[in-house]
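Task 17 of the worksheet. Students: predict the tertiary structure of the chain below and write it out as structure tokens. Keep your answer in the requested format; marks are given for formatting as well as content.
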Amino acid sequence: MSPDPTNGPGAPEAELPEAPPGAEEGHDAPAPGQTRQGGRETAAPEVAAETAAPEVAAEVAADVAADEGADLASGRASEPEPAEAFAEAGAELEALTARAAQADEYLALAQRTQADFENFRRRAARDAALARERGASKLATALLPAVDNLERALAHAPEADDDGGFVAGIKHVHSDLIAALKTAGIERYSPEGEAFDPQLHEAVAQQPVEGTEPGTVVEVFQRGYRMGETVVRPARVVVAG
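Model answer:
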């Protein structure tokens, strides 16, 4: 086997590639990925960008986390504590209860005022009616003697000899007085044939009458007058005994 002329002592040395013009040789040559500027070695732009990207991402993540923490802290700070919430709810409930009690008090006062006014109105109307009745009763009491005299005159006046219409004039006056009393609510009554009632009748005499039950009014001397249930003047009667 013949020796390899490239590995032997007599083999020619391999030639190294020549450096480009202006390039530094030996230990002064920059490492791969670096450049020399002003006597200093600087990383290539691509390598610097790749190295700075993780740091920027970390800073952004830290800022986002800080903002979220601040928002969460402000949200927790704005939310009231349970004890404070219960205290506020209790205060509001007490205020509403007080307002409801005050409203009930005002309603009761209004109802009492309305009831008092209604009672006053009824009492005033009743008093006014009683006053009218008393006034009419006094007027009737003053006029009834004149009415009685007119009735006596008519009872004894001869109608046949009334050429001048004197008796007719008395009748008209009597009728007008009776109509005026009726307008005032005063009515006359004649209880002949009725049972004697001491609230309505005044007995002036008592005599036995055949065929008539005792206690029956057999004759009326003077008519009675009343206003509703109130007797202005009782009738004067004769009662069967």
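Marker's comment: The first strand starts at residue 34 and ends at 37. The first helix runs from residue 45 to 78.
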